[in-house]
Design a protein that fits this description.
The complex is a heterodimer of chains A (358) and B (112).
Chain A: E1 2-7, E2 19-25, E3 28-35, H1 43-47, H2 52-59, H3 67-82, H4 88-117, H5 120-141, E4 150-151, E5 154-155, H6 162-186, H7 188-194, H8 202-207, H9 212-216, H10 224-227, H11 248-272, E6 289-297, E7 300-308, E8 316-320, H12 322-326, H13 328-334, H14 342-348, H15 353-357
Antiparallel strand pairs in A: 1-2, 2-3, 4-5, 6-7, 7-8
Chain B: H1 3-12, E1 16-26, E2 29-38, E3 41-48, E4 53-55, H2 64-75, E5 78-80
Parallel strand pairs in B: 4-5
Antiparallel strand pairs in B: 1-2, 2-3
Classes of the chains: A alpha+beta (358), B alpha+beta (112).
Chain lengths: 358, 112
């Protein structure tokens, strides 16, 4: 006999509303239906009724974790429209903040995954690391979550003490290499919970246009920092970790290796940080036209389309977040899985429901 | 533009559909832009709806399923050749929440 189990809208593992209706035969999942948009805020609609500076502050609120990425991508689209060039120092600061944000996001995810697995010690370790990262961001920007670093034509704040940031990032890299990665890759509990479950094949990942660490764990090497470099990424040396087995464990490995690469990128950027101004002109005139910008968010590619009619209010702002393309594949991942693995499989794509709803 | 043919060609070329953008151009007609990624290059293809509808490419490229549903929710654009699932938002609502003439129905009759 099959039965339907509603999971959500308040999900047992993540504190955001999302509903999964799972049809089970015994404990094996046969089918799943997803319901999203429980926290729809109409950000696109609102952005078309604000001027460009106000819209920057608004799009920062699309997501509470990758907030910097949204302002970065929106500003890049507007800069493209206005034909603005961003000072080199600002490009490096943008990379540093974006990579710090990736580190906080992945550390949060690793902690949440450890908690779902049932490994509280690792949860505390990851959140301890994340706290230090948030401290750095607070020192630089004054804020722990919405950093308000990007503005059209540059960045708002200077990194006044690069050595202090460098010391903490080196410490984070050491902690990752000596503590977190060995625990995740060798611990029997974690391997038993993660290996071979929630498999997404390379073929399906391509067909469903999956992005970010979820795609890279299935052998699809899509990374905009490498394929279409922006800011100062073309000046930095880094690897793009790719795994091929496509299970939850691969997603864990890809994210942890990415954290080490992010630390390396920040170290390079801080050492190379060139002198000069950090922003362009105060007032920007945006001529009629349309522009597209994409950036690699912690969860994958974030996309912005901005159209202008020459006024100070955008004609159309389209936001596509990585979670919107990654979430439909959860249905494919849970088919044939054990019911007890569903929360972990769902969490393994690092879904962001507020991004998805916008 | 023959969107189905475009979807076939782009899928064969191993392009990835990033998203689709829609906005109202004149009353009831919409400009739809298909944003494809081909090895890091963006290819943006724009077309217009015909009487508010456009062929669906969800059967050719499954990733467009949620994108089309979202555009249907926001602009009430009809995607022909696919079943119309309930709205992402409240399933009982009517589509087109981003349109200027959209009215929020107060079905419960309670004062808010």
């Amino acid at each position: 006999m099959s039965f339907i189990i509603p999971i959500g809208p308040y999900h047992p593992s993540l504190e955001e509303p999302f509903k999964l209706e799972v049809k089970c035969q015994g404990e094996i999942v046969q089918d799943a239906t997803m319901h999203i948009k429980f926290n729809f805020r109409g950000v696109e609609w609102l952005a078309q009724r604000r001027n460009y500076s106000q819209a920057v502050a608004l799009v920062e609120r699309v997501c509470g974790i990758c907030s910097n990425l949204h302002t970065l991508t929106f500003c890049r689209a507007v800069e493209q429209l206005a034909g603005l060039s961003v000072p080199t120092r600002a490009q490096y600061i943008r990379v540093i903040i974006a990579e710090l944000e990736r580190l906080t996001s992945h550390a949060l995810w690793a902690g949440v995954a450890a908690e779902i697995i049932g490994f509280q010690t690792v949860f505390m370790t990851c959140f301890g690391l994340r706290e230090r990262l948030m401290d750095i961001l607070e020192i630089i920007s004054g804020n722990r979550v919405h950093y308000a670093m990007n503005c059209i034509g540059g960045v708002n704040r200077e990194i006044s003490n690069p050595e202090a940031v460098l010391d903490i990032v080196k410490w984070i890299r050491q902690q990752m290499e000596e503590r977190v990665i060995p625990i995740f890759s060798t611990d029997r509990t974690i391997r038993a919970r993660c290996m071979g479950i929630g498999v997404l094949t390379k073929e399906r990942a391509v067909n469903w246009g999956v992005v970010g660490p979820t795609a890279r764990a299935s052998g699809v090497s899509v990374d905009l920092r490498r394929m279409a470099p922006y800011a100062a990424y073309d000046q930095l040396e880094f690897k793009v970790p790719v795994e091929t087995s496509g299970d939850v464990f691969s997603r864990v490995v890809v994210r942890l290796l990415e954290m080490v690469e992010s630390c390396r990128m920040i170290e390079q950027a801080l050492k190379q940080l060139p002198p000069g101004p950090i922003r362009g002109p105060e007032f920007v005139e945006v001529p009629p036209g349309e522009a597209v910008a994409r950036s690699e968010a912690p969860r994958g590619e974030a996309f912005y389309y901005v159209a202008s009619d020459g006024s100070d209010v955008p004609l159309r702002v389209k936001i596509r977040t990585p979670s919107l393309v990654n979430m439909p594949v959860v249905r494919l991942m849970v088919l044939g899985a054990n019911l007890a693995d569903v929360p972990l499989i769902n969490a393994s794509i690092d879904p962001c429901y507020s991004c998805t709803s916008r | 533009m023959d969107v189905e043919k475009m979807a076939h060609l782009m899928t064969e070329a191993k392009a990835r559909l990033v998203t689709m953008t829609a906005y109202e151009v004149s009353n009831g007609e919409f400009r739809i832009i298909y944003h494809w990624d081909l090895e890091g290059q963006m290819l943006n293809m724009a077309t217009m709806t015909d009487k508010g509808s456009i062929p669906s490419i969800a059967m050719i490229y499954p990733a467009s399923d949620w994108i089309e549903r979202e555009i249907h929710d926001y602009f009430a654009v009809q995607f022909t050749g696919r079943e119309s699932p309930p709205l992402f938002l409240n399933p009982e609502d009517s589509p087109g929440i981003f349109l200027d003439h959209f009215q929020i129905e107060n079905k419960e009759g309670k004062e808010r």
